[in-house]
Amino acid sequence: MEKIVKPTKKNFYFDIAILIAALIVALFVNNSVGIIICLIIDIFFFILFLKHFSYYLSTTYIISPEYVEKRHVLIGMQKTSIPIADIRAIDVEQTLGGRILNVGKIKLATAATKGYEMIMLNVDNPYILAQDIESVINLSRYPETEKDE
């Protein structure tokens, strides 16, 4: 059975909160330097919001008993697929903000590449998802044999 995972929305909610906070601060600052700093912060977080939002809309991860796949559809479709049997390492990374929001990235490595072949960005509950991938790997490598009764 396939499991379909989308990147989290939590990142762009955070971006919107920072945008609003910087706009509110800009309204109450009386000097031009403070207003310019707040506007620069707003522009930065607006660009970050657009990046997170477009990534959320265009990226899908699929975990099946045969493969883990990343589909990125923005203008064209970019698809990265790793057979379950080829996955050799699963690493999870979380920043401090990621720990607070329970968001992180999962890195999948195979023996064929030196680094990581796939990085699953901005996933909710990354440790649980990594355990799900490990259980699919274990089921494919060590299938339960039926006992004769």
Q: How far from one another are the termini?
A: 28 Å
Strand order of the largest sheet: 1-2-3-4
The CATH superfamily is known as Pleckstrin-homology domain (PH domain)/Phosphotyrosine-binding domain (PTB)
Spans of at least 5 consecutive residues with low confidence: none
Number of domains: 1
CATH-defined topology = PH-domain like
The name of the CATH architecture is Roll
Roughly what fraction of the amino acids lie in strands? Answer: 25-35%
Tertiary shape: elongated
The chain-level structural class is: alpha+beta
Number of helices: 4
- Major pleated sheet: 4 strands, antiparallel
Give the SSE string.
EHHEEEEHEEH
Radius of gyration: 20 Å
Q: Portion of residues in helices?
A: 40-55%
Mean pLDDT across residues = 87
Give the C-level CATH assignment. Answer: Mainly Beta
* Number of DSSP E strands: 7
Detailed description of the structure:
The chain is built from four helices and seven strands. It is α+β, with helices and mostly antiparallel strands. The chain has a single domain, classed as PH-domain like (Roll), CATH 2.30.29. The strands form two sheets. Strands 1-2-3-4 form a four-stranded antiparallel β-sheet. Strand 2 and strand 3 form a beta hairpin. Helix 1 runs antiparallel to helix 2. The longest helix has 27 residues. The two termini are 28 Å apart.
